# Entry
Amino acid sequence: MADLDDFKTRLKIAKEKLKKHSNNLNSNENGSFMGSAFKLGTELVSAVAVGTIIGYILDSWFDTKPWLMIFFFFLGSVAGILNVIKVAKKMQEKE
Amino acid sequence: MATNPMHQFAVHRIGPEIKIAGIDLSFTNASLFMLLSAVAICGVLFLGTKEKKIIPSKFQLISEMFYNFIAKMINDTAGSKAKPYFPFIFSLFMFVLFCNMLGMLPYSFTVTSHIIVTLLLAVFIFIAVTVIGFLKHGFGYLKLFVPSGVPALLLPLITVIEIISYLSRPVSLSVRLFANMMAGHTMLKVFGGFVISLGMLGGWLPLGFSVALTGLEILVAFLQAYVFAILTCIYLNDALNLHH
# Structure
């Protein structure tokens, strides 16, 4: 019986070690989650910036300051959200 | 000056000033490190392919790893049609990776922490992908901007939004790499400055942070090169396999 108990405790310790190891692996994945969060952020911001710049250029062409810039700022925001949805869909497909 | 965390990003001239037609073309520390990374890539690949053994040497092993890694990535994301573009994506990945990694050496200069370098790479990719798309599909490539199943009333608005979304690709691609590299290197320098200003008494804590951050930065250097290459593959996939 003593042998069996010994084996059981050893098994328990080994299982806990395995659990810890897999937890560590999960925390490694969290590191790349930070990367994907950064990715989503830049997608959103860059579309807004591009939209606003297009609006600014069109404004100076047609002399309609500041209406086109405001309009294209909102279009850019929509495009940014669209980008984020596209990227998030791709991320979910991977899992 | 040495404690200024932004001082490491300064570009300065090495050797004589060269001016052609009013444009400053002098050799700078940025050009030096681009040249160094190109030489390092050629060196590693040359040593790796010099003698082909069944039991590989270290250099052969690392070259084969890079080759397999990129080949698998292209196959997974862009399919077999993207095979002809392997040399381009391979050189792109190696260049960004070696620039990032060389920047991790003390006293070195990180080329990719300058927006002009990353923006140039991204704009080149953007133009190349657009040209490939038009060559493969003709004017059918414009279908990318007109998603199917949209009410006719909303169509002009959606098309403009899709065009903005398409134009934002090079911006997000370049800003991501540049911001990651610059933020990381500034942070390393700031923590390094803390070690000196806190001295023997309190300097140990920021020193520990610096060591941990160096490890994180090496991970980021690899990850950003990978992200840059995989996004190029995804854009290439959009251009080659048009599906809407």
Residues 7-240 of chain B form one domain. Chain B touches chain A at residues 157, 160-162, 164-165, 167-168, 171-172, 175-176, 179-180, 219-220, 223, 227, 234 (CB under 8 Å).
